Amino acid sequence: MFDDPLKTFVTVVELKKFSHSAEGLFLSNPGVRSQIESLEQELDTKFFNSSSTHLELTQEGEIYYKYAKQIINLQDRAKEEIKNLSNMVSGSLKVGGSYTIGEYILPFAVTEFAVHYPGVEIETSIANTEEIIQAVRNNQLDIALVEGEVNHTDIRIHSIMEDELILVVPNQHPLAKLPIATSEHLQNQVWILRESGSGTRAFSDKLIKEWGINVRKSYIFGSGQAVKQAVTAGLGIALVSRWIVRKELNAKELKSLRIKGKRLTRSFYLIEPKEHETSEVMEAFTEQILGHELITSWRKLTRKGLDF
Fold first, then answer.
1. Cα distance between residue 73 and residue 280, in whole Å
2. CB atoms inside a 10 Å sphere around CB 273
3. Which of 10, 97, 244, 287 counts the highest number of beta carbons within 10 A?
4. pLDDT tens, position by position, for the chain (308 residues)?
5. How far is 201 from 233, CA to CA, in rounded Å?
6. CB 8 within 8 A of CB 36
7. Which secondary structure element, helix H or strand E, spans residue 267, and what is its range?
8. Does this UniProt record's set of keywords contain Electron transport (predicted)?
C-alpha cells in the first residue's frame, strides 16, 4: 500500500481525479480520500472546493501544492546524493591519448568523467600512438585512447568509434579547384606527414604505398596541430583526421578533397594492460567510454564533420 500523503496529494492535483490517482498509486478510492483528509485535518483547511463539479484547488490548496512539489523534489535530490555518496568512486587514474584523440577528444572524456566522479585524481599523457602503447605495456599508464593498429597480445583492445581521414590542401593549391581527386592527381606532390610511430603516419604511408603515389618531397611534423598549420600556410598537402581540421574547414581556411572511390576510415581504440589488475576507477572510466551517449555524439560529429 502506498502511504505518502504528500505524494498522494500532488498526484490527485496533477491527475485531477481521485479515481485516476487511486489507480496510479495502487490504492483504493477511499484510501486516497483518507490520506487527503488527514492532511486537511492536520492543517485545519480544505484543499478542494466541494461545490465544484470537478477538482478545483482552493487558495490554501494551491499554496500547499507549490510547497509539496518543492519538498518532494528535495527528497528526491537528497536520496540521489546519498546514493551517489554510497557509490562514490575515488582514487587516481593515469590516462594516455595519442595526439589526435589526446588533443581533440580526451579532454571531453575527462571532463565528463570528472563530473560524475569528482573524487578521482586524473593525470593525462599525450604522445604518438606507439609511445602510448608502450607506456600501457610498461604499466606507466592505466588506460589509453589511441588511433591506428594495435598488434600486441598483452593489451586488451576495445574499438570505440570510427574516425574519417580526409585529404586537405591549401586554398591556393591547384588541387583546391578540383571537385574530386584521383590517385593520379596526387602524384609528385609535396606531402606534410607526421613522425614515425604516429597512427596517422602509418595510415598515410600505407595508402601512399597502396596507391603507388610518388612523393616529390615531404616535411615531417610532430603533431597534428603542426601538420594543419603547415597545410594552411601553403607548404603542402596532408592526410589528416577530420577531427583536427573541422574548425578550419568551417572557417574555409583550407580545402578538403574527396578521393574518387575512396572513403578513408580507421578505428579509435581504448586499450589497457591485459594482465594488470583492473581497479574500480578503471572500470568506471571504461564503462563511460564504451557505454556513454557521448560516444554516439562523437560518431555523429565524425560522420558529418561538424564542430561542437
1. 31
2. 21
3. 97
4. 456 888 888 888 887 777 666 666 667 778 888 888 888 898 899 988 866 567 788 999 899 989 988 898 888 878 766 766 656 777 889 999 998 899 888 998 898 888 888 889 999 999 999 999 999 998 899 999 998 788 888 999 998 888 889 999 999 999 999 988 888 999 999 999 999 988 899 989 998 998 899 999 999 999 889 999 999 999 999 999 988 898 899 999 999 988 888 788 888 999 998 877 788 888 889 888 887 545 555 555 445 444 43
5. 20
6. yes
7. strand 264-273
8. no
Identify the residue whose cell numbers are 481521485.
18
Residue entry with cell 483518507 = 34
- CATH of 163-265 among 2.60.120.1440, 3.40.190.10, 3.30.390.80, 2.30.130.40: 3.40.190.10
CATH of domain 5-86: 1.10.10.10
Helix (H) or strand (E) holding 92: strand 91-98
Q: Which CATH class is domain 91-161+268-304?
A: alpha beta
Q: Among candidates 141, 266, 244, which has minimal Cα distance to 194?
A: 244
List the beta bridge partners of residue 91. 120
How many whole angstroms separate alpha carbon 12 and alpha carbon 32? 8
Place of cell 594495435: 150
172: left (phi over 0), alpha (psi -120 to 50) or beta: alpha
DSSP assignment of 2-44: ---HHHHHHHHHHH--HHHHHHHHT--HHHHHHHHHHHHHHHT
